[in-house]
Amino acid sequence: MDLLQGTLDMLVLRTLILAPLHGYGIAKAIRNNSGEALDIEFGSLYPALKRLELKGWIASKWEISEYNRRVKLYRLTPAGRKQLRREHSEWADFVSAVARIMGPVPEERKQ
Amino acid sequence: MTFWKRLKYLLPSYRRAQERDMSEELQSLAAIAEAGELGNLTRVAEEARAVWGWTWLDQLYRDMQYAFRSMRRNIGFTATAALSLALGIGANTAIFSLMDALMLRWLPVRNPQELVQVKLRSGSRVEIPGESFSNAIVAALAEQKEIFTNACGFSGAVFDVGPSGSIIRVPGAWVTGAYYETLGLSPALGRLLEPADDRPGAPLVAVISYGYWERQFASNRDVIGLSITVDNHPVIIVGVSPRGFQGANVGAVADIAMATAALPSLEPAFAGLLGPGNFWLRVLARPQRGVSAGQAQAHLSTVWPEITERVISKGWPAARRRAMAESVFVLSPGGTGYTYLREQFERPLMILMAVTALVLLIACANVASLLLARATSRQREISVRLAIGAGRGRIIRQLLTESMLLSVLGAALGVCLAWLTSRFLVDTLSGAGFYNDEPIVFDLTPNWHILGFASALAMANGILFGLAPALHTTALGGSRVIKDDTRVTRSRSGLLSSLVTAQVALALLLLVGAGLFVRTLQNLLNVDPGFRRDGVLVVNLDGQREGYRGARLSEFYSTLLNRVRQLPGVESASISSHTPLSGSTWSEAAIPKGQSLPQRDNAIFIAVGPRFFATLQTPLLSGRDFDERDQGAPNVAIVSQAFAARHFPNQSPVGQYLSATVTSPPSDLQIVGVVKDVATSSLRLRPYPTVYVSYFQRASGNDALAIRAAGSLSQTAAAIRQQLQPSFPTSVLEVHALTDQVERTLVQERLMRSLTGGFGVLGLALACVGLYGLLGYSVVRRTREIGIRMALGAQQSGVQWMIVGRALRLLILGAALGVPAAWVVSRWLQAMLFGLTPTDPSVIASAVLLLVMAGMLAAYFPARRATRVDPVTALRAE
User: Structure pTM?
Assistant: First the structure.
């Protein structure tokens, strides 16, 4: 399924609200939480992380994972939380607006 | 915020740390993920780097590195292109820096853009002094508070500073009281001159320049209140003007400024300057806020007729007074100050600017053809890159980086060249100092104007001449060129040929211009000025300043002359009120007795002593010279050929009488002789009717000795100085050669001759380099063809002719374009030429000849190389 422009950032922020994750973990979490519907390419996700980090919405830190590996974990910053709230409400508005137009499609009548 | 974080990525150390961190992170993730799940990690890293920004900078850096490397590998190409550009840009920058100093630079004063220069324009043909005004008019202008907050007048001066015996000439200025206030300056130390200092009888005070304060007084703060001797009078220094301000006269430094009211005490001989009939001050004014130039002009034209009643000398003829009252004021921007040089050199500089633009065009054509030729040799490389997926834009950007780098290199070299040569320009201009003998001072250190100009040229050049080859090379995409499409090379060599043809045409244009100015100077030097200039020394004297008046002055000068005549090496010596081409003349009305005197002056008058004509070797055509008899009555005169021809046609004027205003009361002058015409004010003008009167019947005070020396001029000059200086304790005598005085009137012509000549040769050389490059290139491209021809039995001369013939065709085509262009363009030079028309056939013919000869020389080397092609090697190369 293709993502709408700008949705990826929102998904990343939303995913990180639960717990800090490393880059690959974020991709996996999005895939799992969407019921395998959204398969984000790592090639798009990783630059998005760098972009969000530059904007100050997420922060990263090297830590030791539960499997005793050194990984870089990303966490949400307070600014990121605020941004997520803003994006969420915009998203909700957008969805309800589209939903109002998109009623069920009537079946085509057969001749 | 984000921007500042991004900026950090410009730091190489930070960037490296981030790079390391990122590769570590990606590796750690690759270890966790399944193989291939993360995709192409190099690409991921590249896209992450793009997030940091500066990708373009990165690419630029890499392009520059690449460009540097390829420039180093093709050192011959780089040197030729950069040098061509350096010469072109250097020539432009040198002329521009002079133009900038002379015309464009603001004075270092408060809001210079507000200042206006007040000028007067006359509708009638009666001569009106346009840019100069009398003290009374300056005062009347300053009173117009509705339009001007302030108005001031100023004039350059040279002061003799120091006690008797150790006098130094210091350049300065006479200024009106409102000068500093109008300019809006505040003192570096003490106070500046004020209106109170400019009242008759005010104490003698002076303001010195910051530079003079540093040099002469070692920046000592005790200078305020110090008394210095100026023109033999004690003058108190009251202040130091701000750093960088050298006076409102551009090009002339004013180290000492004094109020005009001090003039009668300091220089009694010139006290008359303050009178209503003397127009000697340039005027700068600062309009009231919100008053436009048009409103101010309208206001001035309503009040001016009333002002003229008050301020115009009653002694003037009625016609001139009326013309004055009917004249209109013109306000022009004054923030760049005033210089007489501007009027004299504006046109020449414009022409030189156009000339250097042509030189630059020729240079640019060289660079363009070099780039084009190089692009051809890189065609394969570029095609391969296009074929494997490089973006066209990206390749164009890279090629542009190379041409820009080349331009910048050329511009940097050019600015250095310009800086070195502009010294020479200023020295040449300094010779034009009619006004006083002070050198012209221009600061030509490259400033941001000049650097901006040079870099704009470089940018335009880099883009314009880099883009064409870049577009050309990348236009065809990959595959076709890899197959070595011959059509491409043909269209490209057509482009090269037309570039060279244009160069030839432009070079011809330059050569014709240079030829016109060379001949103009030659013609002027060949004009018979009516005297022999070499071997004559001139000493300007001011006996009045030493306190001599009337009969005592005559006596004083007589004894001086006798003393000079006895010096070794002096052949003859005389005295006169004006020497030829000294820059000043004196005119009066004179007419054969019985006719009524005209309203206007109709003759130049010169008072000369006995043996003046012998000293200058001006032939006496009939009658006699003045001699010792001509001291009291009767008044006698000698007239020039032109005067005799106009007023005594077909009869001898000797023995006739003239009525003239020269004596008071007006009385008759008996003509005792006729002399050959002498160029008095300019070598260009036809000699004006001139009347010579006996010096010792009319001594004025401000005069010149003319001395013909037999031996070394400099030795005699030193001897004369040594002999005369003790009699002039309050001034510095200067002895100069009459040739220098004549040369001074030719400064503009000499400048134009040297510069257009130099630029002509430069343009020709550049065009020849272009021709040489094209032919050399074609020999290389046609090596195989030449080899086959020779293998089939072609003679060496035939091969040579093939190359030379191509050169000749290009030259003839270029000349065919250049001659009509020169014919059209040279009309603009008409006013500056002398003794020939702008379309002088001999000038055009010699320019074409020179061009063809130089072109043949340029063709010789490639032609010789063509004959050396070894058929076997040429064919084996395939």
Answer: 0.78
